[in-house]
Amino acid sequence: MSSNQQIEKGVLLLAEPFMEDPYFKRAAVLLCENHPQGTLGFILNKPTQVRLEEILEDFPAFDAPIYYGGPVQADRLHYIHNLGDLLEDSLPVSEGVWWGGDFDALKFLIQSELVRPEQIRFFVGYAGWSAGQLEDELSTGSWVTTEMHANYAFKTAADKIWSLAMYNKGNAFEILADLPEELSSN
Description:
By secondary structure, the chain is α+β, with helices and mostly antiparallel strands. Strands 1, 2, 3, 4, 5, 6, 7, 8, 9 and 10 form a ten-stranded mixed sheet that branches. It is globular. The chain contains six helices and ten strands, in the order E-E-E-E-H-E-E-E-E-H-E-H-E-H-H-H. The chain has one domain (11-185): 3-Layer(aba) Sandwich (VC0467-like).
């Protein structure tokens, strides 16, 4: 893999197919922030068994799963959505994807049934890299970068995101997308 891959907000990182790290095995990570001190993103394809009502008091009933965003600050809740300017103070990440926003406004929008579960993805924790760390990992082939599509986050089943994004890169990546998780499955 080329080490000149772009690291910027809105890029999707795909773990190389044989990565054994349990946090990042077959992970698809949306990068939401990149600055000289480091990079922050959320793993899009690792749902948990935890529900919102289990960790948030005084939150309207909302049938949305919580995803494992990464190993850093796993006691913090984050969210991405496709609500755009409807949710004040949210930050654009890529086309059709925003990060965060006014939490009280979000609760109001949910209570008013103006937001559906498929429009938002909640995460506990995040994936983080210190300055230069992600560049090093890219140079050793641990990650592949690709274009983020909002449909990966909001319309694709979590267990299909990695292979679909890998397949959509084309050429040799189509072959990688079809590799079984365990080679003994061959």
